[in-house]
Write a structure and sequence with these properties.
Layout lengths: L1 E6 L4 H4 L13 H13 L7 E4 L3 H11 L6 E3 L16 H5 L24 H16 L2 H4 L4 E6 L1 H11 L18 E6 L4 E3 L6
Parallel strand pairs: 1-4, 2-3, 2-4
Antiparallel strand pairs: 1-5, 5-6
């Protein structure tokens, strides 16, 4: 079974380096172009289903990737981006240049403490673990040759990869934040997830 994981296309808040979190910001024109191009690239891949964050920047990306094809898109609240609480919409410099533990968001995630009302890395990791274990992995029993897609967000995807690659929060960001409309592919044999570095469309 294959799982394609895709970050949404660009938004104006991405361009402005603002922390979006659960704020529902739509794609900008470049984000729509990126999503359309990825849809063309993956046009010959058969997807049994696409799962999307309910936020519009992810859901529109999923629709643009699907294009004219008859593929079901299912919104799942478990795929919503991490919450930044009262500091959603903050510019990156304002969020990170502080003496509080939120400054560790990218550099030492195991030390990160969210703003008031925000979500911890442990909380988002538990959400994505639940999604994979209850929604995706059971699909293997139905169709071991199935192919699915998740369209979501930067931190959400990093947390999902923590589960798929079985590493802790100290390695939360792995090789770095995924780019907009960047796809990562994993295979599942019923027991173990493995990153597919040499996948072919």
């Amino acid at each position: 079974m294959k799982l394609y994981i895709v970050r949404h296309g660009t938004t104006e808040w991405n361009v402005q380096y603002r922390f979006q979190g659960r704020t529902d910001i739509e794609l900008n024109s470049n984000g729509r172009i990126l999503a359309g191009k990825l849809g063309e690239k993956l046009e010959n891949v058969h997807f049994d289903c696409i799962y999307s964050s309910p936020l519009s920047r992810a859901y529109e990306t999923a629709n643009l990737i699907r294009g004219h094809r008859n593929i079901q898109i299912i919104k799942d609240d478990l795929l919503t981006e991490i919450s930044f609480g009262e500091l959603e919409g903050s510019f990156s410099d304002d969020f990170l240049n502080t003496d509080t533990p939120r400054k560790y968001f990218f550099t030492e995630p195991q030390k990160y403490v969210p703003p008031k009302g925000g979500e911890t890395f442990d909380q988002i990791c538990q959400r994505t673990k639940k999604f994979v274990q209850t929604v995706i992995e059971p699909k293997f029993q139905e169709n071991p040759d199935g192919c699915y897609m998740v369209v979501a967000h930067g931190a959400l995807i990093a947390s999902m990869i923590c589960y798929l690659e079985n590493h802790g929060i100290e390695k939360f960001w792995g090789n770095g934040l995924k780019g907009n409309c960047e796809e990562t592919v994993y295979t599942f044999d019923g027991n173990v997830w493995k990153k597919n570095d040499d996948f072919k469309e």
